[in-house]
Amino acid sequence: MAVLTKRSENYPQWYQDVISNADMAENSVSPGCMVIKPWGYGIWERIQREMDDRFRATGHENCYFPMFIPISFFQKEADHVEGFAKEMAVVTHSRLAQNEDGKLEPASKLEEPLIVRPTSEAIISDCFAKWVKSYRDLPVLVNQWANVVRWEMRPRLFLRTREFLWQEGHTVHASYKEAEEEAKKMLEVYREVAEDVLAMPVILGKKPEYDKFPGAVDTYCLEPMMQDGRALQAGTSHFLGQNFAKAADIKFQNDKGELEYAYTTSWGVSTRLIGGLIMSHADDEGMQVPPRVAPYQIVVIPLIKKEEDREVVSAYASSLVKELALKTAFGEKIRVKLDIRNKAPQDKSWEWIRKGAPLVLEIGRRDADGKNVMVKVRHLINTDGFKQIIPQEEFLAKAGALLEQAQKSLFDRAKERLEKYTRTDIRTPEEFQAYFANGNVFLQEGSDKNVAFVRGKWSGDENSDELLKQMKLTIRCIPFDQSGTEGVCLLTGKKATMDVIYARSY
Asked: Which end of the chain is less enclosed by CB atoms within 10 A, N or C?
């Protein structure tokens, strides 16, 4: 098994090593794209399940829309197309033919070019215009699980690839207030999944005007802190007002018999969440997967050193798996796997440690004879609690609690990092510039080079974007929990009352 680069030595390479050693994904022969392997895709399936259950509970239904969108649909909304123009993949021909040299080349030019879906507001709005005629048709609450294409120039597994998986919700409402509340409600759903399921604490807020979704009235976001102090936009929810409704002519007859434009929202998360999961929880031994999204929460490995032990050890391990499959954690049956592959047991054990399986059980003849279980607790690696020998009945009784404790521990660690490394004591532009003069490194206790979040004042100056680019910084969000106090803008030195989160980001 390959050696992992240490986080403190080369964080970007460490990230790639974690993915490789956990066998989560790999680069595809298709440039800029990735192959998501079973362990990585299993995590995505768990995220889907957790999200989808919550969408249904809030009244949303799943559907599907085409991935090919006529270019004219984007031209109806100038701000929207400008925001995505550099990332769009365009289909211009419908078939291939051999030329005189026997090489294949495009042959039949389309009457109208088709955009490969970068996002679906344009085509979904067209459908909404057909579906919505009366206030009695509202609200419309739909979601789709799909793939999208954005022509990234610097691809990176899970964080930025030219094709990626996501969900996008789209809704139509009769009033400004209802649509705005919907956008905030779905942001709260994302927060719940990020914190309660992915163990990834986030800051909620609104994007600055210059950084909102193209065509939106307001964009709301959730921002976690990675282990190198950078931010990662983990999801967004957009209040679109009537902008897309006017472009697509989404009108309805209100209860007074008058025609008016509807109000719409859209919101989405993607496989980028897995990148956030890695950079929130993985360590120098590999991946750590929070139990709520682990494809297998417990892995059982029989240790058969002698052929005469095979029957006894195999029977004991199999019975243990059956018993565990009846137990629950987080209100669901525990997901358990018996690993009987023809590989050296120690290799299998380290493979599951690198994958980040929460609990790995190694069962040998001594364990079978003594009715015990040898447990490796992934989140306690490099501590005295990593290896534990527990009587079988005791382990079966507390397996669910061990998984819930692991979930809480991962969240608490990440929460402590977010709180500890969010600076609130930087008050002047000079202090601000001195702080960010350091480069981002893996956050380490006592280091004077740590650079992470700064919560400070911003004047809202329209030139802020250029100033931030010069410093290679971003305003991640305007937090919902504003202090209301007056201070000095950390960019311009002007008086300001607005609190924002400044950080470097992915």
From this structure: N
